[in-house]
Every structure is written in C-alpha cells, then in structure tokens.
Amino acid sequence: MTFVTPSLLALIFGFASSAILGPRIIPLLRKLKIGQSIREDGPASHLSKSGTPTMGGIIFITGFLIALITSGIVNSKILAIVISTLGFGLVGYLDDYIKVVKKRNLGLRAYQKILGQAAVTAFLIFYYMNYIHTDSHIIVPFLKTSINLGILTVPFLVFVIVGTVNAVNLTDGLDGLATGLSIIVFSAFAYITYKAGYTDISGATLGLVGALAGFLIYNYNPARIFMGDTGSLALGGALSAIAVISGTPLFIPIIGGIFFAETLSVMIQVGFFKLTKKRFFRMAPLHHHYEQKGWREIKVVYVFWGVTLVLGIIGVLAY
To answer: Which DSSP letter does residue 134 get?
Structure first.
C-alpha cells in the first residue's frame, strides 16, 4: 500500500473512533462521578466547571490505538511510541484516579510521579540507544544537518522527554487548549517525519491527530469532558517519543513553543516569589495570567492556537 492510504485510514479511523466513543464514555464517567475538582484559588469563572467528567484522555488514546490497528501501521518503532504514550498515560491515570475517586486532592505523591515518569523515560532512552541511535541522528533546525551529542545524548534525552511531558501537562487548563495545540503540533510533526523518511511514524502521528480532532468535539468550550492528567501526560509521552525516535527533538521548542512558555511562566513565578515574595505573573501557568487580565477563556485559547499555527509553519520551514 502507498503511504497515503494507511495514513489517511489512520486519520479517519482515529477521528471516527473518538467521535463515537465520546457519547458513550462521557455518561459513564458522569455516572461514576469521576468529575473535575476546581482550584479555589483559580479564576472564578472556572468554578462552574466543577464536576465536569475528567480522565477523558482514555477516549483519544483508545481512538489512537484503533487507528493504528485498523490502518495496519504497526512495527517496533510504533510500538515504542505506543508504550511511551500508554506508560505516561498510566501515570496520569493513577494521579487522576487518586484525586477523583480516592478524593486525595494532591493525587500521586511527588516521588511516585517521579518514579513512574523515570521508568517510562528509561524505557524510551533504552529503545533509542539500542535500536535507533546512529552517529548523527539528531536533526538541527534550519541548518539541514544532523549532529551527534556523544556522551550528552542520554542527559539530553532525559531533559527532552521529562520536559516535554510536563510542559504539555501544565498547558491543559482551559477548554480545548491542550487538545487544539496538540492537533497543530502533531500535524506539523506528521509532515516533518514524512519528509525525514519515517512514513510509518508520520502515519501513526496522523492517527493521533484524528483521534484528538474527534475528542475536541466534546472538549471544546464549553467542555463536556476534560482530558485530565491521563490525557495530557499521554500526549507528552507520544510527542517526546515521536520526536526522539525520528531524530527531531530540537523541533519541539519551536513547534511546541506555547508548551514551554507555559512551563517557563511557572518557573519564573516560583523563582520570583521565593526571591521577592511577590508574583511576576497575575497567575501561572501563562494561560491563567491572561484570564486574570480580563481575557475571555475562548480568546486565550484562540490566540494560543494561532501562535502555535505560526510556530508550526516555522517548524516545517525549519526542516
């Protein structure tokens, strides 16, 4: 079969699966009372969202798996991406479960999150070093060249994987924000990986794009379901795996610039407060800062989507 056929199938089946699963999963989660708790110190406009079903990441994760199976895009590289997605998604699921079902607001303890993320990160790096790594595999944006980081490869990959996973997680705070951003980011990576010769990874990535698009129907403002840490950590796991295995991790800060701006805003807020006992931003992560400045939630989402669309085009041109 040509590249177009399985990739198109993955996109269509991913979308259809999520779109069909949504009306079945949402009532079930509502019946089980798996609802989102809203921070009391967060924007007042968010209090009305309390009780909205969460853990919705299971919808597009399932849609993604169905897309891969039905389109026949399955090999060792794709399995590694799936394991990274499911592994980080499992850490998020346990965190959501403890928060929502066990009613322990903080979810997993810090050391438990670290251990869980470390285990999946170790797997992904092991796979890369033993089955993918070559002397010059990491592509440098704009320069049309590849580099070998030598002994810095492993620490670099740890930084990329853990940073990406948690950056996507921090971005999930407004209706449709992380979902829409991810659709744009993964679409750009689908194109780049295709041009890099990884047609299998590109097709799988389009399957995830389709699954996210189907999920957005229910996650768009006003959201009927949230992805929860189950979804946001899974997306970070998928993005980091796709980039690492295809040799394109240096494109993440460009295309996923909003993800890292959100993370940087939290780091600045914490550091500045410790030094001055004052806040640098009105609220962190960054999307809440703009809400506190008076922007409507939907405006923040659209602006962040627009910025990411531009960054995605820049990332594609950088290749």
So the answer is: -
- Tens of pLDDT, residue by residue over 268-277, are 999 999 999 8
CB neighbours of 145 closer than 8 A, spacing ≥ 6?
136, 139
Is residue 42 pLDDT above 70, yes or no? no
Q: Name, in order, each residue with C-beta under 8 angstroms of 296's C-beta and a sequence gap of 6 or more.
A: none
User: How large is the greatest C-alpha to C-alpha distance in the chain, in angstroms?
Assistant: 61
Q: Tokens 């999307």 identify what position?
A: 287
pTM of the predicted protein model: 0.94
CA dist 237 and 231 (Å) reads: 10
- Helix axis angle, 257-276 to 297-318, nearest 10°: 120
Q: Which position has the token pair 């840490």?
A: 229
Q: For residue 134, what are its two tokens?
A: 């070559």
The Cα–Cα gap between 107 and 230 comes to 12
Q: Which amino acid is at 69?
A: I
Residue with tokens 């946001």: 232
Q: Look at the block and give the residue holding tokens 């890099």.
A: 196
| Length of the chain in terms of residues written | 319
Q: What is the pLDDT of residue 32?
A: 86
Query: Would residue 34 be called left, alpha or beta, if left means φ above 0 and alpha means ψ between -120 and 50 degrees?
Result: beta
Distance from C-alpha of 269 to C-alpha of 262, rounded to nearest angstrom: 11
3-state secondary structure of 138: strand
Residue 303 buriedness (CB in 10 A; 0-12 / 13-18 / 19+): middle
| Structure-token match 């992805």, residue found | 227
User: Which amino acid belongs to residue 32?
Assistant: L
What is the SS3 assignment for 100?
A: helix
- Bridge partners, 254 (sequence order): none
Residue 43: per-residue pLDDT: 58
